[in-house]
Each structure stands twice: as structure tokens, then as C-alpha cells.
Design goal:
347 residues; mainly alpha; two-stranded antiparallel ribbon; globular
């Protein structure tokens, strides 16, 4: 053997190995911390997709169970990292954050950096479309470049992102969902959907396009145990429409969303009446559906529905969607104009 050192690339350290001397400036870790929150939402969505596919195709071998366990373990680790980060960032005396992470945790931080970089790039595109001055765009570009560099600086430089992030990216690109699969089957069978019929009359186009094909296919199969997929889809349409009409892009749970949009004392982004009692009634109408109907089908399989009951719910959601077209946004409060100085009477 020669005395020269080997130039072969070294294998990456295992996830469980500790990363020595890993530290971040406070502002940098804040960005990575926000990225971890986005990653947590992404892995939750990935796990839900996995579970749906498992049910849809009756998957239960060791490889599928291992994939589900990896998602669950990643969610737990992310939640622990986020909780630790909240405490560290709450300490104003810390100018440097030293998480003492494993390489697995660093790979999660790297994935978070990638997601934050994407978010800033999307925001930059929005700013560009709004026709901001060139100087402002240059400042934004500098900020975006700085965010992109974070993922390739210090201990994150050259490190691959977490495998769970790559797995989630690959699966969510296919956009698996009950609606996609059932509509694909309906299309393959060249099923003709009647938009208006004697037993259920729906006016909203999204409900007609996305829910009636599911309902028709399930009725044709004769398997009412799958009717909850129609309720899930109509609930997603309603929640999405509320966000669009209210102009909300921030992620929030359904309870908070209903309060921000409808409650007269919490937000009231959409106004239906000057009468507080009436406005509160609208809040109860929408929040009641969300808490009692939407939450149940989003969190577990529900086999209690009949075709007739689902058709009733479709009509109810159709009416809620109509109500959203009648809402108005309260005017943005304008600062009070300063009173003109009084002129003394010299007569």
C-alpha cells in the first residue's frame, strides 16, 4: 500500500451519529425553525396519503408498515425539535443556538431550509406580479439569496435532506386522493353524470364537478361504506372556498379559521349582518358543520352514511357556498385625519 491518503469519498454519517460543533445564529435558526413547521405539515400530509393508499389497495406487508412507521417517527422527532426550538428562541439572551443535533436532525433542518427557500421564492413571484419598484425587488432578491444560502452553509453544507422529505415529495407529486381515484374510475367507465336530478339539485360548479361523480360511482357499485369520501370532498371544497373568499393564505386549524372569518368578536373577516346576534348565528352555522361533520370524516373512516343523507349534506353545503357569495368584507379602518389648526379671530 502507498503512503498517500485515500481520495475515495467518505460515506455520509448515519442519522443517529451526533454532529459536533453544530451551532446557528439566532436569526438563521429562526428561518430553519419555520422550515421545520412547514416540513411537519408536509409529513403529516404524506402519512395521510400513505394511509389512504394502504386502505385503497389493501397494503399491509412489512415494507408498507415500515414506511408508515418512518412517517410516524419523523412526525414525533419534528414535534420534539419544534418544541425545543420554541423554548430556545424564546430566550432573548441567546444570540447563538446550539441544538446538539444528530445528523438525522440536521437532515430535517436541511429539508426545512429547502422548503423555506421555496416559500420565499413564491412570495418573490407574487411581489413581482404586483409591480413593486425595482429597488424593492432588489432588496427582496437579496433576502431570497440569503435564505437559499442557509441550506448550504456551515454544518448543512453538502448534507442531503432527510429521506422522509424526499419520499413525501415523490408521493405528493402524484396527488393521490379519493376524488382523483374515483374520478379516474368514472372516466375509464365513461360514466355520464347528470348534473341536476329529481333527488338532488346542486348549483355550485365545484360540487357538481367533484362530488356528484363520486356519488354516482358509489351508487353504481352499491357500496355505501365509501360514502364518507363524498362528505370529505364537499368539506374540502367548503373550507377552500372560505379561505379564498376571506382572502386567507395563512395555515390554521378549522376552529381558528371559522373564528377569524365569521365570529363577530374574534375576526369577522366576512360580514353578513350589522346585528351581532345574526353574525354570530352565521358563525355557529359554519363552525357547527366544521366541528360536527367535517372533523369526523377528516380523522377517521365513517361508514354510517346513506345515499339520502349524503345528498342532504350536499344540499346543505351547496347553500353554505351560496351564503359566501352574499358576504361582504368590512372596510379597512382608515386613520383619522388630523384636525386643521384653528385660526384665531382677530376681528
Amino acid at each position: 500500500m502507498s503512503g498517500t491518503e485515500s481520495t475515495e469519498p467518505q460515506p455520509p454519517p448515519p442519522d443517529e451519529a451526533l454532529a459536533r460543533n453544530a451551532w446557528f445564529y439566532r436569526a438563521t435558526y429562526r428561518i430553519l425553525h419555520d422550515g421545520l413547521k412547514t416540513l411537519l405539515s408536509k409529513v403529516h400530509a404524506y402519512k395521510e396519503e400513505l394511509e389512504f393508499i394502504g386502505r385503497r389497495f389493501d397494503l399491509n406487508d412489512w415494507r408498507f408498515r415500515h414506511a408508515c412507521k418512518e412517517a410516524t417517527d419523523s412526525i414525533e422527532e419534528l414535534e420534539q425539535m419544534i418544541a425545543w426550538g420554541e423554548k430556545a428562541l424564546d430566550n432573548e439572551n441567546l444570540s447563538v443556538i446550539e441544538p446538539e443535533p444528530s445528523f438525522g436532525a440536521l437532515r430535517l433542518l436541511k429539508a426545512g431550509a429547502i422548503l423555506e427557500s421555496r416559500r420565499w421564492l413564491r412570495d418573490r413571484e407574487v411581489a413581482l406580479k404586483q409591480g413593486l419598484p425595482q429597488k424593492v425587488l432588489q432588496l427582496i432578491d437579496t433576502k431570497v439569496d440569503g435564505i437559499k444560502d442557509i441550506g448550504e452553509t456551515g454544518v448543512l453544507n453538502g448534507l442531503a435532506p432527510a429521506q422522509i422529505f424526499l419520499d413525501a415529495e415523490e408521493l405528493t407529486e402524484h396527488k393521490w386522493s379519493e376524488a382523483v381515484l374515483f374520478q379516474a374510475e368514472a372516466s375509464a367507465q365513461q360514466q355520464v353524470v347528470t348534473m341536476v336530478r329529481a333527488d338532488v339539485q346542486i348549483y355550485d360548479e365545484a360540487l357538481k364537478d367533484r362530488c356528484l361523480p363520486l356519488l354516482d360511482l358509489i351508487k353504481k357499485k352499491g357500496d355505501e361504506s365509501q360514502l364518507d369520501t363524498v362528505v370529505t370532498e364537499m368539506s374540502r371544497i367548503l373550507e377552500d372556498r372560505i379561505r379564498v373568499v376571506a382572502g386567507l393564505t395563512e395555515k390554521m386549524n378549522p376552529d381558528k379559521l371559522m373564528g377569524e372569518v365569521f365570529h363577530p368578536n374574534k375576526g369577522g373577516l366576512l360580514k353578513f349582518s350589522d346585528d351581532v346576534a345574526v353574525q354570530q348565528g352565521v358563525f355557529f352555522l359554519f363552525s357547527g358543520y366544521s366541528a360536527f361533520i367535517r372533523n369526523e370524516v377528516m380523522h377517521r373512516l365513517v361508514t354510517k352514511y346513506t345515499v339520502g343523507r349524503v345528498e342532504q349534506l350536499l344540499g346543505f353545503v351547496d347553500y353554505l357556498l351560496y351564503l359566501l357569495t352574499q358576504a361582504e368584507k368590512p372596510p379597512t379602518p382608515q386613520p383619522a385625519a388630523e384636525a386643521a389648526p384653528s385660526v384665531p379671530d382677530v376681528s
